[in-house]
């Protein structure tokens, strides 16, 4: 059984519709060949961008804003005549699975907690950074260029897995305290969502 997964929708530019159309074609072709296809497309319905946009709009609730845009996205997919995926899990509905994966990362010594925030330690994983695009090297990355530098981190390249709750923001319970996952850890969330919805036998490709 094959699994087709696509990057979650989180208010992307309309030009990104090409990716969804491409996966729709692949989905249709595999079904045409006789494969029993499980097509997974998940929604990142909470992250920094969603919270920021909610604060800037008349919709104060980030979850409600996500729900509205998710429905608009589904309408766009319908207008493009894309087939519905087999399942469409949402991040906010699978915090238990996400926390389970973060817990395993910490148990394996690859993560650490500071004041309710959880970080991934790049030094604990020698393979990290080999997939950087355009031949860039991890050591050449400039701390603070994309996000504010957190001087509490063991290594400037360490990235957040979980953010401690801030006043007025949605939060969920975790072993490190109330908070939410960070959007940069997309693969982490995708794996948690797929694990929650699929059996090991279902997951042949990711």
Which descriptors would you attach to this protein?
16% strand; alpha+beta; 5 helices; four-stranded antiparallel sheet; single chain; 33% helix; two-stranded parallel sheet; 206 residues; ligase; 6 strands
Description:
- This protein has 206 residues and is α+β, with helices and mostly antiparallel strands.
- It has 5 helices and 6 strands; from the N terminus they run E-H-E-H-H-H-E-E-E-E-H.
- The chain has helices at 17-32, 48-56, 62-79, 95-107, 186-197, and strands spanning 2-9, 37-43, 111-114, 117-120, 159-164, 179-181.
- It has a 4-stranded antiparallel sheet with strand order 3-4-5-6, with helices on one face.
- It is globular and about 50 Å long.
- The protein starts with a strand and ends in a 9-residue tail after the last helix.
- Residues 1-11, 132-136 and 200-206 have low confidence and may be disordered.
Task: Please outline what is shown here.
The protein is built from 5 helices and 6 strands. With about 210 residues, the chain is α+β, with helices and mostly antiparallel strands.
């Amino acid at each position: 059984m094959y699994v087709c997964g696509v990057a979650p929708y989180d208010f992307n530019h309309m030009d990104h519709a090409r990716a969804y159309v491409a996966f729709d074609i692949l989905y249709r072709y595999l079904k045409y060949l006789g494969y029993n296809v499980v097509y997974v497309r998940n929604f990142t319905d909470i992250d920094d961008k969603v919270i920021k946009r909610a604060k800037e709009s008349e919709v104060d609730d980030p979850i409600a804003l996500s729900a509205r845009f998710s429905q608009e996205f589904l309408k766009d997919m319908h207008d493009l005549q894309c087939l519905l995926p087999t399942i469409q899990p949402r991040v906010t509905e699978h915090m238990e699975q996400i926390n389970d994966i973060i817990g395993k990362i910490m148990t394996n010594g690859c993560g650490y907690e500071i004041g309710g925030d959880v970080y991934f330690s790049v030094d604990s994983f020698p393979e990290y950074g080999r997939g950087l695009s355009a031949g860039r090297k991890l050591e050449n990355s400039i701390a603070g260029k994309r996000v504010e530098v957190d001087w509490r981190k063991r290594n400037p390249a360490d990235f957040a897995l979980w953010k401690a709750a801030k006043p007025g923001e949605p939060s969920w319970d975790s072993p490190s305290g109330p908070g939410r996952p960070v959007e940069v850890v997309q693969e982490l969330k995708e794996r948690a969502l797929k694990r929650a919805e699929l059996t090991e036998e279902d997951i042949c490709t990711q």
